[in-house]
Here is the input.
Amino acid sequence: MQTIDMATTPLRALNSALQAAAASGEGQWEVVNPKGSHAVAVGLDGPIAVTIKGSTGYYCAGMNKAATIHVTGSVGPGVAENMMSGEVIVEGDASQYAGATGHGGLLVIKGNASSRCGISMKGIDIVVHGNIGHMSAFMAQSGNLVVLGDAGDALGDSLYEARLFVRGSVKSLGADCIEKEMRPEHLEILRDLLERSGADAKPEDFKRYGSARQLYNFHVDNAGAY
Here is the structure.
């Protein structure tokens, strides 16, 4: 394992080294003393493993592709934004819009996530072991959002075909989001995600939410919901 100390290595040099390693598939890396730095381990395009020992600021692990990034602390807004594949694991909490616009891969947040978790998600799988804030999964297009705790106001507002699974309470549902039947195929999807994310929970304890499909086309009776 190779170690990079951010106390002595500038952010640009860190990301350049990690991106070069990802391109050549060079093993395992450890980043120490991140001290809340922004944009740590972004744009990795290869199957390497990076462990960040501490908390980070904005946009950690953004645009990830194929890499496994493990943050032992908490993260600021926009973790794993526009993620394409691979895995991002956060041991602590995540701030706003975690996993925003993610196209693929798995994001695991073992603490709580703030507002707009999974906004405009496009295929990413997100598992939050704690609670999520308001307006999560806003305009979510596809993928799965799994929440072991509670969800805040306006869950799934204006979503498309993303699947939302919540074990706890939901403060309110957003426009066009409804509770839906949990069929056997959904239980299998959920069981797989819980296992992969290390979550100690039973699929049968969750409720599924999704789109009522009333906002796909404009209708004057729905004008107040737009």
